[in-house]
Amino acid sequence: MIRTNGIFDMKYCDLKLLSDHRKEQLHDAIDSVLQSGWYLRGEATERFERHYARYIGTRYCVGCGNGFDALWLILRAYKEMGVINEGDEVIVPANTYIASLLAITENRLVPVLVEPNLETLQIDESQIEKAITRRTRAVMIVHLYGSCAYSKRIAEICKKYELKLVEDNAQAHGCEWNGIKTGALGDAAGHSFYPTKNLGALGDAGAVTTNDEQLAEIIRELGNYGSSQKYLFERCGRNSRIDEIQAAVLDVKLSWLDSDNQSRRNIANIYDKLINNPLIRTAKMSSRAVYHIYPLFCEKRNELQTYLKEHDVETVIHYPVPPHLQKCYPALKRSFPITELIHQQELSLPCYPMMKEKEADHIARLLNDFF
Ligand SMILES: *Cc1c(COP(=O)(O)O)cnc(C)c1O
Predict the structure, then answer these.
(1) Are 36 and 239 in contact (CB under 8 A)?
(2) CA of 292 to the centre of ligand 1 (A)
(3) 20-114+122-254 under CATH 3.40.640.10, yes or no
(4) What are the residue ranges of CATH 3.40.640.10 in the chain?
(5) Is 246 in the pocket of ligand 1 (CB under 6 A)?
(6) 3-state secondary structure of 9
C-alpha cells in the first residue's frame, strides 16, 4: 500500500515487495549458480528436487520447464508406459485453467469435462462416475484457488475403475489433506512455479512429483529429448528442463513457503471474518487451503470490480471465459451452467504474503459499503 497525496493504491499481487524482502538471499543463490559455471541439470536442480520431494512427501521430484510441461509429461509418460493410449479420455474439472486441458489435448487425448461444486469450486465428486466410459484412463483433479480437490471418494472411484489420479497442483503448493500434502495424494502431480504462484520462480519453471520410480525416470528422459544416456535416444522427447538459476531461487523460496502460506491464510481469515455484504458470497475452502486466490462471487461482479478500482483496489477475474467456450476448443462447446456461473460472478481479492492486515481490513470495509 502506497499512500501518495492520500491516494490508496492496492495492487492485486506485489511481487517486487516479495523479492525486495529477500533480496540478499536471492542474490546469493543466483550468484552461486553464476560462479559454478554450470547452468542446466546440475547441483542446484538436484538439491531443489530433493528438497521439494521431501517437502511434498513423495519419493521423486523431476524439475521441468513449466507447469504445463509437468502435466503434459505425466500423460505423455503414461502413454510411453502403455497405460494410456491415443484417443483415451481424461476427466478434468470444467472450471480449470486452460493449461490442464491443453496437457490432455496436446497428447491427443480427450478431455471429459465435469462440473465443479458451486460451494467448494472443486470438481464435483458426485458427477465423476457418470462421466466414466470404456475409454477413461485418468482423472485429473485441480486444486483450484489453493484449496484441496481430493477426497476419499475420488480415490475410491479411481481404484474401482483402475484410473490414474493425476493432480494439477499449480495453485496449491503446501496445501494439505489430513496431514498429506497435495501433490502426494494421487499417482503423479504437476506443479507450476510461475512467478505469481505460491512457490514462484523468477521466470518459468515446473516439476512433477510421484512415488512411481518408472514414471519419474521416463519423465526425466522425455524432458531431455528422450535420452537417459548422452546422445542415445530411446524415446521421442522434448526439451523441458529447469534452469539452475530458477532451481536455486526456488530452493531459497521453498524455505519461506510455509510462512508465506500462513500469511495468505491470515489475510483470508480477515476477509472471512469481516465481509458481511449480502450481495457477496465467499467460497468454502478446504481446511488447510493455501489461498493462491481469494475468490468472491457477486451477481454484480463487473460493477463491484469497477467500484473497487475507483477505490484504488486492483482485482482479477479467474477466469473471464471457461475453457469450453474458448475459440480454440469449438468441439467442447456445450452448456456447463455451474462453471459459467462461476466465470460470470467470480472476483479475486488481493491476497499475498507481504500484504498488510490493515489493507485486508480496509478492503473488507469497502466491500461491505458496496451498494
Ligand atoms: C498456472 C497454472 C498452470 C500452468 O502453469 P505454467 O507454469 O504457467 O505453465 C496449470 N494449471 C493451473 C491450474 C494453473 O493455475
Answers:
(1) no
(2) 12
(3) yes
(4) 20-114+122-254
(5) no
(6) strand
